[in-house]
Fold this protein.
Amino acid sequence: MIYTVTLNPAIDVVFELSDSWRIGKINRANNEAASVGGKGINVSRVLKALKRDSIALGLIGGYAGDAIEKDLKLENIKSDFVRVKGGATRVNVKILHQGNTNEETQINAPGPIISHEDIMNLAKKLAKIKKDDIVIISGGMPKTLSLNLFDNFLKFISSRKAYIVVDLFGAPLLKVLKYKPFLVNLNEEELADTLFTQIKNEDDCVRGAKRLLKMGARNVVVMRGANGAVLVNDDLTMKAKALKVEVKNTIGAGDSLLAGLVDEYIRTRSFDLAIKKGIAVAAATVCSEGLADEKSIAEAMKLMK
């Protein structure tokens, strides 16, 4: 079974504004949309489109938490969240700039206060995981969650002998590395922030990924947007080009790549096929108004051949 863990989920409200919008003035959106957000939740949703079951876990609270549970139930995605007492699930605002679909402005709320009891309750829900299950920990951490408490949570998961997959960066990622995660997924900017270095090109990505391997990661994927992605482990370095598609949306592209990669690796145990599948599923999201669905994935897979 695949378990996705979103420690700081959100409701994402997206507005599309013209290029003439102004700070400090009333601006009217051309389009608006609201959706359940959170990187781990997005991974579960794309896995569903790939006909791969998962269970979405995480920490939720308030009316926004209610909305998350309701939406996932309507989408037939299994969930098992912990309800926190320290506030409501965050609401994020994303602004898409009309005429430049590659550019977006994000305003992300901090999220609720997370207690020791909340994390212990989440750990209890993961007590059922067993060897060879996959636990995907994806997305930012609440500011109120201490790294020491997060470390205890990781130690528990590691003790279950499951495959740990993470889409994290910075201090949280450095905490994970000592538990030798099966896969680390991050983008160029996040890699630079984690290693306190500059990432200017593909070679820098490979060098940075190899540093993460030395620190404990078993496989590292660095996403490069329109330049594709690289996958590095002790035995190989793979470079995958992005598909040329019309860009309509970049939100969730990285989550889609991760879902496609995990799905294909489970199916074939081939990293070559897995990274290509991940690139295709990411492209399916990029050329869609929302996350990739079965139809857009099928079309993107044709372009990969």
Notes: The mean pLDDT is 92. Residues 253-268 form the longest helix (16 residues).
